[in-house]
Write a structure and sequence with these properties.
Elements: E1 6-7, H1 10-22, H2 28-47, E2 52-57, H3 61-75, E3 79-84, H4 93-104, E4 108-111, E5 122-126, H5 138-149, E6 154-157, E7 179-183, E8 201-205, E9 220-222, E10 246-250, H6 258-269, E11 274-279, H7 284-290, E12 295-298, H8 302-306, E13 314-317, H9 325-334, E14 341-343, H10 346-353, E15 365-367, H11 371-378, H12 382-387, H13 389-400, E16 403-406, E17 412-415, E18 421-423, H14 436-449, H15 454-474, H16 486-494, E19 506-508
Helix pairs in contact: 2-3, 3-4, 6-14, 10-11, 11-13, 14-15, 15-16
Amino acid sequence: MKKNHLIFKTDQIQAIEKKIFSAGIFSPQRLMELAAKSVIENLILTFGKPSALSIFCGRGNNGADGYLCSIISHEMGITTTVIETQNDRNMAEYARLARDKCKKNGIKLIPFNKDFCIDSGIIIDALVGSGLRDIPRDETRDIIEFINKQNAPIVSIDVPSGVTANSGHVHLIAVKADLTICMIALKPGLTSGEAKNYCGKVIIEDFGIKVDDFADTHFGELLEINGLLKLLPERRQTAHKYNSGICLVVGGDYGFGGAPIIASEGSMRVGAGLTRIVTRPAHVAACLSRNPECLVNGVESIQEAQQFTKKVNVVVIGPGLGKSSWSEQMLKVFLEVNVPIILDADALNLISDGNLGSLLRNKRTILTPHSGEAARLLGCTTKEIDKDRFSTVRELQKIYGGTVLLKGSGSLLCSDQSDKVFVCPYGNPSLATAGSGDLLSGMIGGFISQGLSENHSSVLGLLIHSFAADVARYEKLDRGMIATDLLCYVRRIINSTEAVVPYDNFSNSGMKVG
């Protein structure tokens, strides 16, 4: 089945649902019945048929899905208990109708209390879903805390309760699901940031509907590596090194000499014809010792640096750059070069600290901040950045232009080529190691030097870098991995016609709608 990689915010999903109802494809009640059927089918496919189900239902439409799940599981002979919030005021119409059906079917409905015991089976979270607007109320918080303490698999309907569907922000507490069945289409909050700790495996249930036929627009897209490997440049039989371009890496202030070495290896290993390092003179010997294939030049002054601003195809500046007067001079010099410029690490910090941001105007730039660097660029806290990474990447792109790659769990990409946010579904915590970002910036530079656009190079670099970490994890070699360990996997991927996904955290349901 071809995946639906489109990402929609909740208001866009609601607009799609209205069109589906107006077209007579499904009624609201039928859509909820199908949602419940999908939850039970995917639950059984994932964990096997349980002996018991404990379904926690809220008062909204998410709760209605939960009540309907209980009817299906009851008919299948599964011991089913529905645990309700004690306050049933303002219960949504469809939730009340579904609850009445449960009562008619003799399903056990009990109010939640902290002494309730779950000693077997599977838990279904149908408390809030995508309807969360603020911090969960006291009773809902108590239920979420209770659910997370149980020693049973947890399945969330649409979005784990406590996770904000549009941003992934977690309000104090959220259900820590093992499996999330996302209805209609993927929501942003399931793909990036803190919510990745709570969603488990995500299955997208589109009910056989071609969602984009009913959508005026979409918010973003989930990137997929195999569709993009074809962008890798081919070399002619008569090619020489200058056909694959020159990548210039600038960095390595005192104490940070390793970072430009790592970036240069990233550039070379993805196919740059020639890579040059401009660094402090003290680091020249180390750079050549590690990478004799590189050209390495030690510079101390603006005048020395300026001789290396010509005959380059791309500049990578920032790895180990530092924040000294030398660092600032190097940044000023190389921001004047009229080629694509990748700004990473201390290059970003220098821009946020001073008045160098104006030098980015009308430049072909790629900014690659992590959350801390993004916070400094926007003059806010890291906590504020992580509260809504999607708004952050769009704001950075709006202010600084070019392409912005916000690194982290579920890295995000935004550029002047599209109003959409693109999400990387690959990567794991093994990337949280010194030099990982340096390697990525070098890889992007290596692709640009070969003639790929800034946008395509950013996408390819991001996907291959993250996917390489997933391959290492699949082979159980991720623990203790350092940045340059990724390179053997990078070479394997770029020399393949297709990357075999070692595991897939986002997949489509195979439910047949009848």
